[in-house]
Amino acid sequence: KNDDDEKKDANNLFRILIATDNHLGAHERDPIRKNDAFIAFREILEIAKREKVDALFLGGDVFDQNKPSRETLVQAMDVLREYVFGDDPIEFEVVSDQSINFPNRGIVNFEDENVNVALPIFAIHGNHDDPSGQENLSALDILSSCSLINYFGKHALSGSNTGAIELKPVLLRKGETKLALYGLGWIRDQRLHQMMASKGNVKWIRPGSSDEKTPLANWFNLMLIHQNRVSHAPKNSISERHLPSWMDLVVWGHEHECLIEPQLFDGVSVSQPG
């Protein structure tokens, strides 16, 4: 390839780093192990900086506790601020409705004129840092309010009925490349299993489905999910067969066994970083 071809490829190529289950704050009372999770997390951010990635995707359990200690929160915010903020240009854009994708803030952090973001992070919650309380807030909402991450994939469910959810992707575009990013933060496994097994309870919104000028084939569909994948009890896990066959890649959080090389299940490629 000549220089012009390589430049064109770079302008259209998404460079994305993926990590799951960081568990910040794990063993924080252990004098020997208390910093392990933060050392690993800093290494992830250092790789993102060194490789000049466009974005970092986090697949759940950023924190080890639903209510992380103030020490853990401050340390997490300090390390994120060190790597997230800066003057490096963002070379992609969000072309979907940001008020739907990020309902709490209404805007992706790098388009906020009050902050300079150099490393966009898109994160879903896991079972350790899931939202709770009257306002259905997670510790990730704190990071989002500080413009440190873009928290998405939260679906409010109430009552004892099965419930229903609508999955709308964050649409990212870099040059001619179009990426539809789906996020599904942790929902109690038995409930989500029942929802997915019942026709119509999980509605997938595909990009371009109502716009003839944007054919579906133009989008690469990627999903972040955080659920039991290994069956621990009847109806207490989510099977790959519950996912749509048109999904190009699924990044599966929660399971800690590292199976990062994508494996094909019922037509869906699944990567499990562990």
Present the secondary structure layout.
Blueprint lengths: L2 H10 L3 E4 L16 H15 L4 E5 L10 H15 L8 E2 L3 H4 L19 E4 L14 H7 L4 E2 L13 E3 L2 E5 L2 E8 L4 H9 L4 E3 L14 E8 L22 E5 L5 E7 L2 E5 L2
Parallel strand pairs: 1-2, 2-4, 4-5, 6-9, 8-10, 10-11, 11-13
Antiparallel strand pairs: 3-7, 7-8, 12-13
Provide a count of the helices.
Answer: 6
Low-pLDDT sequence parts: none
N-to-C span = 36 Å
Biggest β-sheet: strands ordered side by side in the sheet = 3-7-8-10-11-13-12
β-strand percent reads 15-25%
What is the residue-averaged pLDDT?
91
Characterise the protein shown here.
This protein has 274 residues and is an alpha/beta fold. It has helices spanning 3-12, 36-50, 70-84, 98-101, 139-145, 189-197; strands spanning 16-19, 55-59, 93-94, 121-124, 150-151, 165-167, 170-174, 177-184, 202-204, 219-226, 249-253, 259-265, 268-272. It is built from six helices and 13 strands. The strands form three sheets. It has a seven-stranded mixed beta sheet, with no helix packed on it. A four-stranded parallel beta sheet has the order 1-2-4-5, with helices on one face. It starts with a helix and ends with a strand.
Attribute tags:
alpha/beta; 274 residues
Structure at a glance:
With 274 residues, this protein is α/β, with parallel strands linked by helices.
